[in-house]
Amino acid sequence: MPPADGAAGLRALVLGSGGGGGVPQWNCRCRVCALAWAGDSRVKPRTQSSLAVSADGESWLLLNASIDLRQQILATPALQPKREGRHSPIAAVLLTNADVDHAAGLLALRERQPFTLWGTRSTLDIIGANRVFDVVAHDIVPRRSVEPGERFEPLPGLTVELFPVPGKVPLWLERGEVKTDELGEQTVAVTAEAAGRRLVYAPGCARATDDLHQRIANANALFFDGTLFADDEMIVAGLGEKTGRRMGHMPISGPDGTLEALARHARVRRILTHINNSNPILVEGSPEEAKVKAAGWEIAYDGMEVAP
Ligand code: MLT
Ligand code: MN
Ligand code: ZN
Q: Does the Cβ of 100 fall within 6 Å of ligand 1?
């Protein structure tokens, strides 16, 4: 049971559990998307990656502003205006990188509503270099940069820290040879803590580091990169030329995949999110879904509520 509204307690709402493109993807008829287009009950439609976090159920921090944010607000009563006139329970937004699925939703928050935008210097510089994001007016939406390792309070009672995870520049900024395993400010994960409970959110991660292990071990719940089941599944399905690792995402299966790499954290509630539409775990009843569940993982869905 989540804490009552107004009561102190960490809670998380999965706004979007899909990876880039969502499920089904607008131009895709892969095996999973075909079931989703057909309305088959084995595949839930999913919007693109975002998690909302609160310490009181009244004001919310968005971990990433999904390109599907408007649809997510329409589906989520907790995020809808509560007071007459202009109002939003969304008090802050934090970007873990500048990927389109994670940042484009800022454009949906443009009707002169005050909130605070948080991110690393690097991510805020990328957003700052794109003048279209100035529709989110600087005078009422301050942009606050934070360093990895710096603790801050984006909402009263919610303490957050960013930490680097291996990743790469956003797809739309790739030029020439791309390092897919870089530790820095461009791809970060998040720990969020309230009332003595803690979650880790890492929607993109190319490799498990010692730092990541330590943070998971100290958490009650983990939301982790579930982009691909098999590293080569997009290639095998004829959907693209890249492996998961090339896209900055460690696969779920295989040597050094997530099931193997994070097996030691059985004590923590572990949830896969940012799941690409090519991923067979999205088909309920599939052997791949059974395999991740047998390994102790849950599969996020849009609207999932977690009180870590
Ligand atoms: C990713 O997670 O790899 C990105 O969302 C890719 C993209 O921008 O489509
Ligand atoms: Mn993504
Ligand atoms: Zn597809």
A: yes
List, as one string, the DSSP characters of the chain.
-PPPTTS---EEEEEE-B-TT-BS-TT--SHHHHHHHTT-TTS--B-BSEEEEESSSSSEEEES--TTHHHHHHT-GGGS--SSSS--SEEEEE-SS--HHHHGGGGGG-SS---EEEE-HHHHHHHHT-GGGGGS-TTTS-EEE--TT--EEEETTEEEEEEE-SB-S-GGG--SS--SSB-SSSSEEEEEEETTEEEEEES--SS--HHHHHHHHT-SEEEEE-S-SSTTHHHHTTS-S--TGGGT---SSSTTSHHHHTGGGTTSEEEEESB-TT-GGGSTT-HHHHHHHHTTEEE--TT-EE--
Average pLDDT over residues 48-71: 98
Which residue among 49, 67, 171 has the greatest number of ligand 1 atoms within 8 angstroms of its CB, and so is best to mutate? 171
Kindly report, residue by residue over 242-263, the tens digit of the pLDDT.
999 999 999 999 999 999 999 9
Report the length, in residues, of the chain: 308
Residue 55 beta carbon below 6 angstroms from any ligand 1 atom:
no
Q: Residue 71: pLDDT above 90? A: yes
pTM of the shown model = 0.97
